Structure prediction request, 341 residues.
Amino acid sequence: MKILGIETSCDETALAVVEARGQDFFVRKNLVYSQIPIHEKFGGVVPEVAARAHVEKLPILLEELGNKNGKGIDAIAAVNGPGLVTSLRVGVELGKALAFLWDKPLVDVNHIEAHIIANWLTKKNIKLIKFPSLALVVSGGHTELILMKKKGEYKKIGQTLDDAAGEAFDKVAKIFNLGYPGGPIISEWAKRGNPQAIDFPRPLVNKPNFDFSFSGLKTAVLYEAKKNSTKLNNKKYIADVCASFQEAAVDTLVAKTIRAAEKHNVKSIMLAGGVSANEWLRKEMKIAVKKYLPKVNVIVPELKYTGDNAAMVALTGALKAREKKFTKFEKIGVDPNLSLG
Ligand code: KG4
Ligand code: ZN
Prediction:
């Protein structure tokens, strides 16, 4: 089965073709047009600008895909939420147009589910994913702990009460004018800093639930910067703030994940979403799991599948298409607040 995936939920315009053969999945095409250069000057994603850029770039990517009549494609999968409403609309409408023209089924895909399924795109991961499994979904818009008792069954057991983890990285980068998106930039600066230099708060870390909060941490960084306005050109100081902030954010993510994994007796932990590219998070999670839950496998997506991409959408669509989970394409709408589990 060959599926065309469409991803336009935020600021990446992406198309991919994935072939699913039994337990083997092959990414045949994976095209991503990143809108970062467009949004960089605004210091964040401007929804209307993002939607217009999707409209402009999708035909170019379709051309690059080189499959004008849908030959060999069995179904189309498009993300219909969560995300920016007009951006989602662009992708879903393209999906409908192609479904009509090529006479193929259209599958609606949840963006968060697709981030989790991205872990299956790498062959060596598949044998390590054991159920029950716990996914830590960390992106620019979401921070959630999703429990999977079995494949395809999702239960949200924790989430952020305010900012998402990626959003906190982006906002901290903005405070110091370091650029956009903040995650990769902060993690680079952090490599030259001391994570123990500043003792930032770890909000909710001692609460017994599995919820997160990042806005207090971001505000603490803002106060720190205001208090030390004379040091804002001091590279060592900025590196120390970045390292200490990253340490606080990662500590919280790891502590809550470990506690949830213990309580639900999971056999594997998966990272998912843009922030799962963070080296410090990957390292600290592996260290903590080895120490506290040595029998649990830690699975991370390949770097190219951590951020928004259409391969994860196509694969999620393929899994749904296998179960013949089709809705008439005319009935597929978008839901910016679509949740998982
Ligand atoms: O999953 P994603 O590409 O888009 C959404 O669904 O939101 O996640 C984007 C987020 C941004 O906030 C970005 O700063 C963050 O992921 N990010 C990182 C890293 N790479 C991307 N955060 C921390 N460390 C990174 N290396
Ligand atoms: Zn995403």
About this structure: Residues 2-117+305-331 form a domain with the Nucleotidyltransferase; domain 5 fold (CATH 3.30.420.40). The beta strands are 2-7, 12-21, 24-34, 75-81, 106-110, 133-138, 143-148, 155-159, 268-272, 297-299. The chain has a mean pLDDT of 96. Residues 235-263 form the longest helix (29 residues).
